[in-house]
Amino acid sequence: NAPAGTFLNLAFNGSYDVNDDGRGTLTITSNRGSFDFFFVFGSDGTIEITQAATDGVAAGEILRRSGDSFGTDSIDGNYVFALEDADTAIVGGLTFDGEGGVTGIFDENAAGAITTQAALSGSDNVDTDGRGTLTLAAPGGLAHYVFYVVSTDRIELVQVDNGAPLAGFAAAQQNDTFSNEDISGDYVFDLSGSGITAAGLFTATGGGGIDSGVIDRNDGGSVLQNRALTGVYSVTENGRATFTLTTPDGRIGFVAYLIDGDHALILEVDGVAVAAGEVFAQQGEPYTNGDFHGGYALFNGRFDATAAQAEAGAVRLDGDGGIAGSESVNDNGSLMPDVDLSGTYTFADNGRGTLTLTSGGGANRQFVAYVVSPQQILLIAADTRPAGVLSLAQQF
Asked: What is the pTM of this model?
């Protein structure tokens, strides 16, 4: 789905080359032309890709498929989904009956206009190769999607109505029912969109309270750092939840759809920003610098189109606060392949830290980091340049 129109079911071929650090280049060719990408291998065979083009910026991922023959009954049960474009973000829940029927609900933030718990109904069909179609009727009309089955637990979605380039994914819920007790312990979250990025952590009581936490927020280059938070949350039986976080700078409200007690998709619904993200249960705390060592993929974990920068790199953390590696960058159509990186990092025992990256050309970038686990770290810019939410994922 592009400004030139919507093009369906395109056959393509291509070529790729991989460096020993897990970075590489990819070219695919169809009857629409050739398209180049930078990429880096992340964890569990996932490949993080960045468009290498002078006329646009995009980022995404390639996921290893599980299974080789599918049908409409492959997608059956309750799923949560997230869809985004430049000024709209949607999260919701879908129930597939395995026979082509779909029902659900969704919450939407469209350029600040909030819709909550709107009903969905529709139909789906899955071909044996795992390509599927989904039609959903909502209060605003019909929407048409194509999706690709990664596994029975995940599908990748793109809207194929002209002028509506929403894209995202759906993941199978792992619980039959939910309650406040499913949210208990320490969590890390991120939000990104409309030039705003945020990340933080909080401790949930299991009874609807958030006793403590901290948040960092970058609003178009205006940075608020290390702000304390408290809050409340409420989880309904279907896994939809509401959160209100209170900080010295005001309240942040978001709705969440739970995959399970360890992972949820979230949408900011307080009218301040069009931003969406994820919540992850924190694992392995308390932390020290020595917990982070070896090769990590550096990539746009949540790409923000307004920041107009995407990157794919590989770095090594030495366990003592040092970083070295290389990356390839698309900065608003300016391509910079194979840029050397060096830097430093430090983490507090709660998993909040700081990270500095310096490129071979001398450019210096400052980040705030939040640890999900020693294998996964979220980064947001702590200087005047917004850049979406970056991720570090331990390789191989």
From this structure: 0.96
